């Protein structure tokens, strides 16, 4: 069996990694809100160097055309691969989308914002690698812990590859949504890996309720969907901002399509679901669940408030990354509630009557 010290070390590195992933989501939100997504037009290097330039004079005169052609060539190879495996429509969409032909001029601030975003991603890769190393002892007593950590490491690699596609397609909308979805899956995998070894200590006297379990999954699922819809709204805002050259922010909301109205309306349903779930969880009188439930309500309240402010006050740039980060944190808290409830009521799952 893994020693207590080894278990503690695994938990510590795991918690640090989860915090780092949330920090990366915040940094990614800053990248988007500042329009720095194409601050580095290539990947993994930035303007062909591991340390980005600080002045346009360090670049060749035809750098715009050079990096545009590199992106197009990479997309051509990707499209060819997708064609070969039968995804003709996806291939055509990627290669024909006009975003890849847009040239992005050098801006030192945006370049370094994007570069810091990549550095944080690299640090997370190393942290998850350490998480896998520290999970090796669990192969003897709980293999799932090791494979959850390993799955997280593989997913980070996929995220890195997808990040290169995001750059080569010049922020193609569908790639950004997938990127966000995988980030949430990564958080869930890591949280499960960290919580699972401690499952026995969470066992309590809770009666298992299929109703509560259903609502926990429902709330987490609807939040996941809402985040993806919000990502699509964010993509529309990027297009509008580009079309208006970053000016007249007060008009941006009026230009948004149906996804914005779906996102706004869906938030009412999500708020109601959270209120009802909180009512059921508070009735259980479990300290760990009650504390997390309070955090969940604070986050969902903050999310609604930020959404209203952005809709009626010209989408303040500083609030955009906060809105995204709080949403990701909300999903993380919901998933942790799921895990704690599962372990706290696990022993009673097959022998008790469901809580009404």
Beta-strand residue fraction: under 5%
Structural classification = mainly alpha
Query: Helicity, in percent?
Result: over 70%
Q: Any low-confidence stretches, pLDDT <50, length ≥5? A: 348-356
Number of distinct helices: 11
| Rounded average pLDDT | 86
Radius of gyration, Cα only, in angstroms? 22 Å
Shape: globular
The H-and-E topology, N to C, reads as HHHHHHHHHHH
Give the terminus-to-terminus CA distance. 39 Å
| Largest beta-sheet details | none
Number of strands: 0
Description:
- With 356 residues, this protein is mainly α.
- It folds into 2 domains: 1-198, no CATH class; 202-356, Four Helix Bundle (Hemerythrin (Met), subunit A) (Up-down Bundle).
- The protein contains 11 helices and no strands.
- The protein has helices at 4-33, 63-84, 88-96, 108-135, 143-168, 173-195, 210-243, 252-255, 258-283, 287-312, 319-344.
- α7 (210-243) runs antiparallel to α9 (258-283).
- The two termini are 39 Å apart.
- Residues 348-356 have low confidence and may be disordered.
Topology of helices and strands:
Elements: H1 4-33, H2 63-84, H3 88-96, H4 108-135, H5 143-168, H6 173-195, H7 210-243, H8 252-255, H9 258-283, H10 287-312, H11 319-344
Tags for this model:
356 residues; Four Helix Bundle (Hemerythrin (Met), subunit A)
Concise account of the structure shown:
By secondary structure, the chain is mostly helical. It has 11 helices and no strands.
């Amino acid at each position: 069996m893994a020693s207590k010290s080894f278990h503690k070390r695994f938990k510590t590195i795991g918690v640090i990694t989860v915090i780092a992933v949330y920090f990366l989501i915040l940094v990614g939100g800053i990248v988007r809100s500042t329009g720095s997504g194409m601050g580095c037009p290539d990947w993994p290097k930035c303007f062909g160097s591991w340390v980005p330039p600080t002045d346009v004079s360090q670049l060749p005169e035809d750098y715009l055309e050079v990096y545009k052609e590199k992106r197009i060539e990479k997309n051509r190879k990707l499209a060819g691969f997708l064609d070969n495996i039968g995804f003709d429509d996806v291939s055509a969409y990627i290669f024909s989308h006009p975003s890849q032909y847009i040239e992005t001029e050098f801006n030192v601030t945006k370049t370094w914002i994007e570069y810091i975003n990549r550095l944080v991603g690299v640090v997370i890769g190393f942290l998850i690698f350490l998480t896998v190393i520290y999970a090796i002892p669990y192969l003897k007593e709980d293999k799932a812990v090791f494979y959850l950590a390993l799955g997280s490491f593989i997913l980070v690699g996929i995220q890195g590859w997808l990040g290169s596609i995001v750059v080569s397609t010049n922020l193609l909308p569908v790639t950004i949504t997938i990127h966000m979805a995988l980030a949430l899956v990564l958080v869930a995998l890591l949280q499960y890996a960290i919580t699972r070894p401690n499952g026995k200590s969470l066992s309590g006297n809770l009666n298992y309720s299929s109703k509560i379990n259903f609502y926990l999954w429902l709330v987490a699922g609807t939040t996941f969907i809402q985040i993806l819809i919000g990502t699509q709204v964010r993509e529309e805002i990027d297009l509008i901002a580009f079309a208006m050259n970053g000016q007249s922010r007060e008009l941006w909301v009026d230009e948004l399509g149906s996804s914005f109205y779906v996102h706004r309306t869906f938030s009412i349903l999500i708020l109601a679901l959270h209120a009802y779930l909180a009512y059921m969880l508070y009735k259980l009188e479990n300290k760990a669940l009650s504390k997390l439930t309070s955090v969940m309500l604070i986050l969902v309240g903050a999310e609604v408030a930020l959404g209203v402010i952005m809709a009626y006050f010209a989408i303040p740039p500083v609030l955009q990354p906060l809105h995204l980060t709080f949403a990701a944190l909300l999903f993380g808290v919901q998933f942790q509630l799921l895990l704690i409830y599962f372990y706290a009521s696990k022993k009673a799952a097959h022998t008790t009557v469901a809580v009404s």
